[in-house]
Amino acid sequence: MDRIPILRMGPFLLVTIQVDLYDRLALDLEADLVKMVSKTGAQGILIDISAVSIVDSFMGRIIGNIGVMAKLLDAETVVVGMQPAVAITLVELGLPLKGVFTALNVERGMDLLKSKIQLFEQDETDPENDSDDHITE
Q1: Which runs of E-coded beta strand occur in 49-115?
Q2: Domain boundaries, given as residue ranges, for the chain
């Protein structure tokens, strides 16, 4: 049975899709990614689709689902390498990929994930700035 490899890179999972995804393979990838985020505590998923030239509504929904599920597990999702024809198709199909960030290439995608994690960690460590602290009666 075919599987898309999922690589762990520090706090992130990296998936490079090198083949056209048929329905069963896409569903398996979705399930495998969600399990890996839960198992490893990964803070981000980077999905490289630069080798994907055609996407249908099912594939678009799977990518969107991965983003939503990952977010529920406290991880961000970035899709990189999207070809213009794929972007056009996703827009024409009305699939905005909510919960999924995009970047031009893997390097920019990793930078985006790192910045998202740094922002989250910064919010966690900073005390809340309550404007009522400065009000005197």
Answers
A1: 76-80, 100-103
A2: 6-129
Contact 76, 44 (CB under 8 A): yes
Q: Token pair of 136, please?
A: 């005197």
How do residues 90-101 score in pLDDT, each as one tens digit?
999 999 888 899
pLDDT in tens, 102-126: 999 999 999 999 998 886 666 666 6
Question: What angle do helix axes 23-40 and 57-72 make, rounded to 10 degrees?
Answer: 10
2.40.50.1070, 3.10.350.10, 3.10.580.10, 3.30.750.24: CATH of 6-129: 3.30.750.24
Q: Tell me the pairing of strands 100-103 and 44-48.
A: unpaired
**Six token digits for residue 28:** 């398996």
Q: What pTM, to 2 d.p., does this model score? A: 0.84
